[in-house]
Specification:
It is built from 8 helices and 12 strands. The protein is an alpha+beta fold. It folds into 2 domains: 44 residues, no CATH class; 294 residues, HIT-like (HIT family, subunit A). Helix 7 packs across helix 8. The site of one zinc ion (ZN) has 5 residues, from helix 3. The site of one zinc ion (ZN) has 5 residues, from loops.
């Protein structure tokens, strides 16, 4: 059962999804439903022996393409709607023990391409008003499957957090004739105290108004509303800065840091959002290596966050945490922008090596190699998706 119930007090939708109670809960690694299906072993969600990135529809979705009839009738006060939408799972890698932080930049760049593709395809559906790309990582966040994966929710409405951002951005645009986020980027770049990492295209900073001690936002320097507006260089730059931030997170306390990652971008309801600015937000729950921040009375009851740290100080800590630059230590590229070509070439070389090990040839030319990889991924995940559809049809 799943439906949308309107809260007339807070003026927001709540999704009921009772079937989610039966979700697979911390299966042993041998029975991971997101690993490739190995010969002679139990079948998993992915009927293939290996894969790079796979996207499929969540088995326990909060939204469905063909939603059930709501369990109760709605009226004026208590509005009810079918929960029509789509929930997808994105498997980052076939390696059970991997993570985004340990992925090569070239693999993260491939994921950025997949995100772009999903945003475009899901967003083009007439009943999808908002595409939320996110990742919940770690047991502390309540993740039930360890295998590295993210999720995509295609909402039939614009959810309240992005809606609030859109409203404030629109007001700023109207009153100042400027983008709110561009102003924030300018301020952070000039100030410098809250910057965690940066490259040509992106700035990663602990926001001035951080709710969580190690909250980090990644913003493109150029005014772009969604992934669809990114150039090739920007897609690569995003992968690069994600890798650096995630490595810093894992090095912060010496263990893979749990986090929630969400991507905020223009809604897909057919309207124009010239005043909005794409960004990614990370909320790690850790205050220290051993203490978590809980959303208690003040946060849950009043909506006001109490941050036990100063963003200027946590940003300085993250800035000093390896890798400190983009980055010989990552093995991906040198420290300066002038090394860019060389760094990219190296990443490509690694990727080719991997593909060659898979028994597939990589292109000689750097550009060709990269394109080849993308096409291959798209093709493969399409194949896997087809196979899954067949499986469901039976
Ligand atoms: Zn697995
Ligand atoms: Zn902007
Ligand atoms: Zn945001």
């Amino acid at each position: 059962m799943s439906e949308l119930r309107w809260n007339p007090v807070l003026e927001e939708w709540v999704v009921t999804a009772t079937h989610r109670q039966e979700r697979t809960y911390h299966p042993p690694a041998d029975f991971c439903p997101l690993c490739p299906t190995r010969l002679g072993a139990h079948p998993t969600e992915v009927p293939a022996e290996d894969y790079e990135i796979v996207v499929f529809e969540n088995k326990f979705p909060s939204f469905r393409r063909m939603p059930h009839k709501p369990s109760v009738e709605g009226d004026d006060l208590y509005q009810v709607r079918p929960s029509k939408g789509i929930c997808e799972v994105v498997l980052y890698s076939s390696k059970h023990n991997g993570s985004l932080a340990t992925s090569d930049v070239v693999d993260i760049a491939r994921l950025v391409d997949v995100w772009t593709d999903r945003y475009e395809e899901l967003g083009s559906l007439d009943y999808v008003d908002y595409v939320l790309i996110f990742e919940n990582k770690g047991e502390a966040i309540g993740v039930t499957l360890e295998h590295p994966h993210g999720q995509i929710y295609a909402f039939p409405f614009i959810p309240p957090r992005p809606a609030r951002e859109l409203e404030s951005a629109a007001r700023h645009w109207d009153s100042k004739a400027r983008c709110l986020f561009c102003d924030i980027i300018e301020r952070e770049a000039a100030d410098g105290r809250r910057i965690v990492a940066q490259n040509d295209g992106f700035l990663a900073a602990v926001p001035f108004f951080a709710r969580y001690p190690y909250e980090v936002h990644i913003l493109p320097r150029r005014h772009v509303a969604s992934l669809l507006d990114f150039s090739d260089d920007e897609r690569w730059g995003l992968a690069e800065i994600l890798k650096v931030v995630l490595q810093k997170y894992d090095n912060l306390f010496g263990f893979p840091l749990p986090y929630i990652m969400v991507m905020h971008q223009a809604p897909t309801d057919g309207r124009e959002y010239p005043y909005y600015h794409y960004h990614i937000e990370f909320y790690p729950p850790n205050r220290t290596a051993t203490k978590l921040k809980y959303l208690a009375g003040c946060e849950s009851g009043a909506g006001t966050f109490i941050n036990d740290t100063l963003p200027e100080e946590t940003a300085a800590t993250l800035r000093a945490t390896a890798p400190c630059k983009l980055d010989p230590a990552c093995g991906e590229r040198g420290a300066g922008a002038e090394d860019r070509g060389e760094g990219r070439g190296k990443g490509e070389g690694d990727a080719k090596g991997e593909r060659a090990a898979d028994g597939e040839a990589g292109g000689e030319d750097v550009g060709e190699g990269r394109d080849g990889g993308e096409a291959h991924v798209g093709e493969r995940s399409a194949k896997v998706k087809e196979a899954r559809r067949d499986m469901h049809a039976q």
